[in-house]
Amino acid sequence: MPAVRKRLGASIVLTLLSIISIIVLLPTSRVSTRLQKIALGPTIDTSLWSWSSSNEELEEDLGGDGTRLVIFGDSWIDDTIEDGQEGKGRSWADYLCEEINCTSRLNFAASQPVGAWPAYPPTGAMTSNAIHEAGMSKSTYTIPLEVAELSLLPDLAAQIQTYIALPPPKQPPTETIFVVSYGIWDIYDFSRLDFPIAQNGTDRSIEELFKQLDILYNHFIRNLYSPDILGTLNSADSIDDTQKLSIPTFRIILPKVFDPTLLPGWVTLRPAPPAPSSVAEQQKNAVYLTQRWNQRVENQLAKWVKEPPAPVPAPQNPNPEQDSSHEDIRNSNKPAPPQPADQTAIIQKDVFYFDLPKLLLDVIVEHQLEDEELSDASGLGTGESPFESVYIPCVREAGGDDTDGLVDLAGMLVCNEPEEYLFWDSFNLGAMMKSWIGKEVGEMVRENKTMRHQWGH
To answer: Which pTM value belongs to this model?
Structure first.
């Protein structure tokens, strides 16, 4: 009994020391993006990581003529650059903004801070924290506490609610395009659970994705581009016909999910699987779940885009306290009640579904074929890869003699030529690759290569 008490006392002391270390190491403010202030949902513990941009004033979203880009997502589209990360480069959404000449940009994406590792294992923003928590609670595998902890990053619902809570622009932009980049960290996490639970979690996350898109769409048609708002602005004496806003389209940019097993960190930084799981089993799960995610999202998108949009709602009572029937639609995806509105005023939905995995795999295969002095029938291998490596990231652990010319970042080594590496760190793309993605997506937007455009209507 005394030995048990001693071990229990030692465990408590170690736990307290770990918590104190985490609090000291983790930054108190690390979200630093334009027009952005991330707020966590009410069920998420904020005692360890704080994601509010307290060091940066929230700019006023003036709106007006031009294109506004609104971004939700994970580390693959977050534009936060911490100290020592200058070589990380801008997010691909920044390059997209340049390609389409957007006039404003709101980025609500979030990623794990550099100082979180190795106290916490690698993780990222997920579609739904609640779905992951439910999956972990049902798993039969013994998951160590440090692995089972939620990322504490704002999920899609939290990011969208932060956006909706912002004061609306004084004048709606000519168009607003939404970017939604989620999935890679969902699959990375689900692949370590019992397969039936992982598959169910994947399907539920996709359902949550479309639920949140509907909430975003309702906000779009009721609060940003309702017929009343457009009519009031267009009837102003101070504008001419060229400045009048037409009925916009609700358009989103949704990239396909890249297989996380192809990331450098899958091998080097992923925690060892607890028994009875194995590395091979988790890798097989991740490959299957990636395919399932992309296929089900694509099928659901086709249905979602074709679904007749909800009729434009009647004007809301400006004083909801005097109307018990007033409903706050910010957290609701329920369609608006049918109204005898002009059908020409109905706002359609459309999607740019970008094949991100193909672009990345072509780059990787090109490099591999060049190394072997080979080429394939599609022409891969005949070009010249700009990357020194497509396997080793710029930011990596020290190993052997691989330290020459490298600088230190929180215990990791950073290369001197980041643009020569496909990956910035073990889980995120480098600056050059992000610029290519931004240009590719920008071309899609400029040429209006949406699902509706492909269907011819």
So the answer is: 0.79
